[in-house]
Design goal:
About 35% of the residues lie in helices and about 25% in strands. By secondary structure, it is an alpha/beta fold. It has two domains: about 240 residues, Rossmann fold (3-Layer(aba) Sandwich); about 240 residues, P-loop containing nucleotide triphosphate hydrolases (Rossmann fold). InterPro entries: AAA+_ATPase, ABC_carbohydrate_import_ATPase, ABC_transporter-like_ATP-bd, ABC_transporter-like_CS, P-loop_NTPase.
Length: about 500
């Protein structure tokens, strides 16, 4: 590391009733990757919003290349060479890659006339810098994979001639292969002299790419050290203020009879002759790379595809052919897109929890027992330790981990026999992960069954009794927990065979 590219000193920020930041210091050098870590609610997002001018600090100073700066808005931050890439992409799907990267800043021949040749040439150069040589600047964003869209966001940040890039959970939606690709891009940008602030909950990535680690907790600076000097346990202890032993609880060893059976599922090229069974009290892991078919399998089991070939049967009942039939049969789906599909963000926490149960609590669309629905909401807030000062607050104000708990609460209230968890810990901190894993253990102890669809191999290995691996719509491997390894899962996930 050479000179300090960015220093934030004594940053404080309060909101009504909440002290979000209390005298926080961070520093990142030219040609350095700083991992900024902390549980959800630790203050990371607020600190970065201060850096990019979304919030004004109550106290503290910001220095760029040794010069004191006052950043009053996001445009000024961009002019100072600061870019932020949020976890939720800020791209317009039906515009081209070039139009997205230079939106509002297109090179012009004369006023009002875009210089398309120059626009495409500049875009092509940026795409090459981020390893997207195969993508045309004219391609529509909605034609790209999630990983490619993530790299377009990086290209857009580079188009501002950025010196400091903040990456907020950039690998959260990526599989292992695409994560490795993005990490290589980050290392390349570092070698070009960029200062990168890397926010992640995947601690295994910290050792792979970060030069230094800074940890926040409860809005306060806890410490900063070279990444190679900290073990994973050290980082967890700094983040949560305690040791987290045995992140994955012991598996329930009392499996019962078959509770769900899927036979011959075929759905275009997405699912090809998929068959398996699920036992009572079992956690069945589903692994695979992006595009493997696991997402379509989750929807098929939940009755989203009424014309699918094959059958899904719960406890010998009739085949499921709709979402309502799936729910009535005791199947619940916790989707990987909690903000887009799992929650209504502008509704209250309480209303989100009650959503699937309204038809059981209401007559003619009117809630008839308000005391009962209040009791239900309070029960799940307490049981899942949802951090919220009132059930009436909008769910959008909660951290990622607490939003996920709200999604879990609304389906657990339905008392499902089979719970499909699709990327249940994506984008949440290690403390909340431990709580969700323990909840899964408790559910299986009660005789409920879980299908765990995850791109995190340690999670699959730590929680599953069996693991099915998918590739190109097919189940290519089945592994009992005691024989499963990351290498075997990856081999099956790429269509290979394990010797």
């Amino acid at each position: 590391m050479s000179t300090a590219r960015l220093k934030m000193v004594g940053i404080g920020k309060s909101f009504p009733g909440v002290k979000a930041l209390a005298g926080v210091d961070i520093e990142v050098g030219q040609g350095e990757i700083l991992a900024l870590l902390g549980e959800n609610g630790a203050g990371k997002s607020t600190l970065m919003k201060v850096l990019v001018g979304v919030h004004q600090p109550d106290c503290g100073e910001i220095y760029i290349d040794g010069q004191l700066v006052i950043i009053q808005n996001p445009r000024q931050a961009q002019e100072l060479g600061i870019s932020i890439i949020y976890q939720e992409f800020n791209l317009i799907p039906f515009l081209s890659v070039a139009e997205n990267i230079f939106l509002g800043r297109e090179p012009r021949v004369i006023k009002g006339v875009v210089n398309w040749k120059k626009l495409y040439a500049q875009t092509k150069e940026l795409l090459e810098r981020v390893g997207l040589r195969h993508i045309s600047p004219k391609s529509l964003v909605n034609e790209l994979s999630i990983a490619e869209q993530q790299l377009v966001e990086v290209a857009k940040a580079l188009s501002y001639a950025s010196k400091i890039i903040v990456m907020d959970e950039p690998t959260a939606a990526l599989n292992e292969e695409d994560t490795r690709r993005l990490i290589n891009i980050m290392v390349g940008l570092k070698e070009q002299g960029m200062a990168i602030i890397f926010i992640t909950h995947r601690l295994e990535e910290v050792g792979r790419v970060a030069d230094r680690v800074t940890v926040l907790r409860d809005g306060r600076f806890i410490g900063s050290s070279a990444a190679q000097e900290l073990s994973k346990d050290d980082i967890v202890r700094m983040m949560v203020g305690r040791d987290i032993n045995d992140l994955y609880p012991e598996r329930n060893d009392k499996l019962g009879e078959t509770v769900l059976e899927a036979a011959g599922l075929n759905f275009y090229d997405h699912l090809k002759d998929v068959s398996f069974s699920l036992a009572k009290g079992e956690v069945l892991g589903i692994g695979g790379l992006m595009g493997s078919g696991s997402e379509h399998l989750a929807k098929a089991l939940f009755g989203v595809y009424p014309k699918i070939q094959g059958t899904v049967i719960v406890e010998g009942g009739k085949p499921i052919s709709s979402i309502r039939e799936a729910i009535d049969a005791g199947v619940a789906l916790v989707t990987d897109d909690r903000k887009g599909l799992g929650l209504v963000l502008n509704m209250s926490v309480g209303k989100n929890i009650l959503m699937p149960t309204y038809r059981h609590l209401a007559k003619l669309g009117v809630l008839v027992n308000r005391t009962k629905h209040t009791d239900i909401i309070q029960k799940w807030i307490e049981k899942l330790k949802i951090k919220v000062h009132s059930p009436s607050v909008e769910v959008v104000t909660l951290s990622g981990g607490n939003q996920q708990k709200v999604v879990l609460a609304k389906w657990l209230e339905m008392n499902p026999k089979v719970l499909i968890l699709q990327e249940p810990t994506r984008g949440i901190d290690v403390g909340a992960k431990g709580e969700i894993y323990q909840m899964m253990k408790n559910l299986t102890d009660e005789g409920k069954s879980i299908i765990l669809i995850s791109s995190e191999m340690p999670e699959l290995l730590g929680m599953s009794h069996r693991i099915l691996v998918m590739h190109a719509g097919r189940i290519t491997g089945e592994l009992l927990n005691e024989e499963a390894t990351q290498e075997k899962i990856f081999m099956y996930a790429t269509g290979g065979e394990v010797g």
